[in-house]
Amino acid sequence: MILRRLLFVIAMLAAGAGAALAQTPEQRGQQIAARADAVATGFGDLQVSGEMTLRTPTGATSSRRFAMKTLELGGGRETRSLLVFDWPGDIRGTALLTHAFDNRQDSQWLYLPSVGRVKKITGGGRSGSFVGSEFAYEDMVEQDVASFSHLWLRDEPCPNGAGRCHLLQRTPRYSSGYAQQLVWIDTAALRYQAVAYFNRRGQRSKTLTMSGYRQYGGRYWRPARMTMVNHLTGKSTILEWSGYRFNTGLRPGDFTREAMAR
Q: Which region is the signal sequence (predicted)?
């Protein structure tokens, strides 16, 4: 009986290995991305505080603080987020509203309290700098699986020293300032560890690194720090996150253009 069970386990492992070998790089890349998305979604809603630090090539820095809230709709097929700056005074009240979708282009609006109006971010504006940082407007959108095609390249050490990673090449399906991206997802918990961005000229223009992951609710991993380095200008921006709170009772009405002005 013991021998029979052992042979059964060996047969199942061999079948699983054979199935993995039978996958094309495209199928494997899509599967890994889908699994990473599945472990990160399903939280319902969350609120978090953030601090943004901008650094020039000479080392000069400036900081900004904000609050951000996110709501999942349709079982995670759509997300809405609202980021509002509260310090310093010259940027206080500036807000970015994002409606992200699985199967179509996302929508974004920027509220500028100095002029009291809401501006929609469209076309080439999505690749522009978000409030002077190294993050583009499109970088502030949930990077859902359906917005990209994925290709598995290989497994290798994570570039930030966080163990071993799957290296995927992903290509935007919709309008984007990036021609291509490389993403490193750790094999241990399927957390995004780094993203390399390539512009339309094929240059590696920016690199985003995530660190300080913590698990919330026994399931959801979130980073404490995200660092975006611009290789073309030498500038960088750090986003530091704190005070994650889940299932706070947010509603769709909290994510409208009218809510931005409030």
A: 1-22
